[in-house]
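Hi L.,

As promised, Peroxidase:
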Amino acid sequence: MAIKSSVLLLLPVALLLLAGSSPAVAQLEIGYYSKTCPNVEAIVREEMDKIISAAPSLAGPLLRLHFHDCFVRGCDASVLLNSTEGNLAERDAKPNKSLRGFSSVDRVKAKLEAACPNTVSCADVLTLMARDAVVLAKGPTWPVALGRRDGKVSSATEAADNLPPAFGDIPLLTKIFASKNLDLKDLVVLSGAHTLGTAHCPSYAGRLYNFSSAYNADPSLDSEYADKLRTRCKSADDKAMLSEMDPGSYKTFDTSYYRHVAKRRGLFQSDAALLTDATTMEYVQRIATGKFDDEFFKDFSESMIKMGNVDVLTGAEGEIRKKCYIVN
């Protein structure tokens, strides 16, 4: 039976201090803003309620923003910075061209600036918004340790080099995750975030057309599903068409993603790759039974805590941006 989103998962406090040996992580605290901005979580949740109520499909993109932030320079809100003359920022890197939700982050940040000027970092705002996006999509909740600072550097080249690609196989994905102190279990668990959101045709069209000299389509993709995808994605150059990453359930955080993957109906090559490794395949097949939703919710919460602590800036490092899209 799935854990309801209103139930707080009782995770060990030690988990909040995970993410390798980085000394900065130990400086993140539950209740970090208890004296300087005591209502921070309530303000974020109130605005997120309005955002997701008006546009439920934004839950996936807001969660994705947090992922794409943490995998490049750590969780420092560098993905939110605009490009400037002479510098192409992360958000304009090819893998980030389809990111959405920036205006929602600006909206929440403005509310916090009105209540607590120059206090709450954009990195903490994005981390809280990602958690609340999952909760509001009927997923689990978890405690978020705060105290991140905002980075001052954002590089499109670094984004292209560090983000896990949709075409990634297990060796490549494992290497990228390990560089962030995330392990194989985190990889298969965090892939479950694909239960939310949509993807543009170019991110998976390579599986449908001219896959290799031997196959037109990716043989690891269910042929009936491939035919269905071709009706939506007419060519690899179709940049307008969207497909649901978790068909029929893309606005709800649940375990149906794993059932699709188990049937060879994962949208990306990186989804299909989960069936090529014994450990990840076993996890996919276990969660796909629908009997361990509570286990997945707990695992996802723990992995999100780890990811949210990757290479964070704390103390006197970085800054607290007034506006998330520009350095002070």
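The chain is about 40% helix and 0% strand.

Thanks again for sending the construct details.

K.
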